[in-house]
TrEMBL record:
Topology in the lipid bilayer: Multi-pass membrane protein
GO CC terms, sorted: plasma membrane
Subcellular location: Membrane
Name of the protein described by the UniProt record: Copper transport protein
Native source organism of the sequence: Quillaja saponaria (Soap bark tree)
Pfam family, one: Ctr
UniProt entry keywords in alphabetical sequence: Copper, Copper transport, Ion transport, Membrane, Transmembrane, Transmembrane helix, Transport
One Gene Ontology MF term: copper ion transmembrane transporter activity
Family: Belongs to the copper transporter (Ctr) (TC 1.A.56) family. SLC31A subfamily.
Residue intervals passing through the bilayer: 55-73, 85-106, 112-131
Length: 150
């Protein structure tokens, strides 16, 4: 190293790890699925280390977001014959909420925690069962929003 500039020379320009605040813990980023409650989901220090109740709360939060996403995707909130401008604004607002929830669920799953993945899939499955399948709905009723494309 050349002085205290924080760069490693001769290593292709790779920088050394950044200096961290002494009181801040260092969290490893998982790149494969793992099991356990010691994870971070969506927010810094959420649900926290060795805190089972907060981990369960985080799982419930992800489940509810997935479930609400399915409800929103299959809901019928606009009455037939509504004003086109008002209906368009409501559709746009619903679309923004649906996309935002989709990204939040995706980011939660990107924590690579197996429990988070399972509750996200379970929330989507149960939500689709209640709101999208023929078990509880009439097949001829369309939702206000077009289906999401992958």
């Amino acid at each position: 190293m050349n002085g205290m500039d924080g760069h490693m020379h001769g290593m292709g320009g790779m920088a050394s790890p950044p200096m961290m605040h002494p009181m801040r813990r260092r969290m490893m980023m998982h790149m494969t699925f793992f099991w356990g409650e010691n994870t971070e989901i969506l927010f810094d220090n959420f649900p926290g280390q060795d805190n089972t109740r907060m981990y369960v709360l985080a799982l419930v939060f992800v489940f509810v977001m997935s479930f609400l996403l399915e409800w929103l995707s299959h809901s019928r909130l606009i009455k037939p014959g509504s004003n086109n401008v008002g209906a368009g604004l409501i559709q746009s607002f619903m679309h923004v909420i649906r996309v935002g929830l989709s990204y939040l669920v995706m980011l939660a799953v990107m924590s690579f925690n197996g429990g988070v993945f399972l509750v996200a899939v379970a929330g989507h499955a149960l939500g689709f069962l209640f709101f999208g399948s023929r078990i509880f709905n009439k097949p001829d009723i369309a939702s206000d929003l077009p289906p999401m494309s992958c």
